[in-house]
Amino acid sequence: MYAIVRAGGRQEKVSVGDVLIVDKVAGEPGASIDLVPLLLVDGDTVTSAADVLAKATVKAEIVEAAKGPKIVIQKFKNKTGYKKRQGHRQQLTRIRVTSIQK
């Protein structure tokens, strides 16, 4: 059984035990969060009806806070003496899917 869930602004395919990295989620490591299911697949049964998905739950546990790779932004304009250097690291959260229930 697996589900397609909305996690961190994207859609992810998850099954029980999967560990995935999503945009930052508020909470401490060990806390439980609910993910919004968009599609459930159990063998040959595919569930996409909104009323059935409203009752379905996908629970996950926060494993740890993480950071993405460093991105370097450089701007340069020739002959004007303008240059600017900036960096960014995205705040992420690693979560583990603990249960999928219809």
TrEMBL record:
The organism's place on the tree of life at top rank: Bacteria
Tell me the keywords, alphabetical order.
Ribonucleoprotein, Ribosomal protein, RNA-binding, rRNA-binding
Any Pfam family hit: Ribosomal_L21p
The question of whether Transit peptide is a record keyword is answered with: no
Q: Which InterPro entries match?
A: bL21-like, bL21-like_sf, Ribosomal_bL21, Ribosomal_bL21_CS
Q: Name one GO cellular component term.
A: ribosome
Q: Does the keyword RNA-binding apply?
A: yes
- Subunit: Part of the 50S ribosomal subunit. Contacts protein L20.
Q: Which family does it belong to?
A: Belongs to the bacterial ribosomal protein bL21 family.
Chain's role: This protein binds to 23S rRNA in the presence of protein L20.
Instruction: Tell me the protein's name.
Output: Large ribosomal subunit protein bL21
Q: Which organism is it from?
A: Spongisporangium articulatum
